Backbone:
């Protein structure tokens, strides 16, 4: 088995860009949505235009293999509901909160799995069940969690954030 | 262990499908695209993990199994291994639908009698192609 890849490699711009590319593909293939990476200035401007107390969902999936860590996707709850409706072919009004939460987790699972498959096809990773928590846009505007690297994506012109976090052991926590 | 009923011959022209995924929304999505794929479909069963899937297989005749890999309680790989031990389930056509498309998983799937491997995310038309390319087998008794 090869040596674990360093945290620096995990957090490289290439790694985050590849996760972003996976997110774009998930959006286009499964959600019939348009997504594109956006630079920090545009992302900050898009965030600033939204209500600071708007409910968001932050979903994370931990992965373990030749290297390990956690990938997360944070998006406005309203966008998650819209995308969930497109994904399942049902009206947004018909969706329950647990269904929207479930979808946010599966969205993150697909993006993380696709990223790892595209960039490390010959290696095996185990993914945990997604963990989804409720946050606000203000929490996101405060910056990525300590030790994480993050970038923004415009999905149907709505900001979402993707991030990579070190594992607890790598992060020293 | 209870056996599958042999009283009525299954209608393989309208196969029953078992969808195994821990995401209820993914199951709903697969169910939807399967239903509108244009192929005749019998009953669609759902399970959130391998253990629930085994319970359904014990009680119902199933021709196609769509399963995820990474699931709590019992993974898709563990489910497929358990199915390998049952001759009366050998006719069930097994399809993996997973975000994990690594070569390692694909090789493992070949050893577990998996007919097709679909990577998430997939376009809805992929499921139509999957169903049109699969032929239900007659159960061995």
Residues:
């Amino acid at each position: 088995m090869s040596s674990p890849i360093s945290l620096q490699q995990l957090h490289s711009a290439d790694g985050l860009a590849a996760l972003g590319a996976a997110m774009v593909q998930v959006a286009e293939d499964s959600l019939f949505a348009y997504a594109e990476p956006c630079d920090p200035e545009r992302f900050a401007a898009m965030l600033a235009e939204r209500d600071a107390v708007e409910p968001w969902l932050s979903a994370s999936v931990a992965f373990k293999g030749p290297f390990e860590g956690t990938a997360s996707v944070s998006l406005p709850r309203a966008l998650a509901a819209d995308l969930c409706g497109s994904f399942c072919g049902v009206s947004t009004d018909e969706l329950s909160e647990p269904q929207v939460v479930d979808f946010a987790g599966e969205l993150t699972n697909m993006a993380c799995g696709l990223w790892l498959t595209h960039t490390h096809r010959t290696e095996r990773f185990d993914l945990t069940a997604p963990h989804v928590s409720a946050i606000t846009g203000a929490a996101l505007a405060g910056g990525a969690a300590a030790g994480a690297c993050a970038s923004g994506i415009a999905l149907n012109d709505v900001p979402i954030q993707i991030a990579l976090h070190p594992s607890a052991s790598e992060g020293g926590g | 262990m209870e056996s599958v009923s042999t009283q009525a011959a299954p209608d393989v022209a309208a196969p029953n499908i078992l969808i195994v995924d821990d995401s209820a929304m993914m199951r709903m999505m697969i169910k939807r695209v399967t239903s509108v794929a244009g192929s005749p479909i019998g009953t669609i069963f759902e399970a959130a993990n391998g253990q629930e899937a085994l319970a359904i297989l014990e009680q119902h005749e199933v021709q196609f199994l769509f399963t995820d890999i990474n699931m709590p309680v019992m993974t898709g790989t563990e489910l497929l291994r358990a199915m390998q031990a049952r001759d009366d389930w050998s006719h069930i056509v097994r399809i993996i639908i997973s975000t994990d498309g690594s070569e390692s998983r694909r090789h493992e799937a070949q050893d577990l009698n998996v007919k097709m491997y679909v990577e998430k995310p997939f376009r809805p038309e992929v499921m139509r192609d999957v169903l049109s390319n699969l032929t239900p087998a007659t159960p061995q008794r």
The mean pLDDT of chain B is 87. The interface with chain A takes residues 22-26, 28-29, 32, 70-72, 98-105, 119-123 of chain B (CB under 8 Å). The first strand of chain B starts at residue 17 and ends at 20. Strands of chain B lie at 17-20, 44-47, 64-67, 93-98, 114-119.
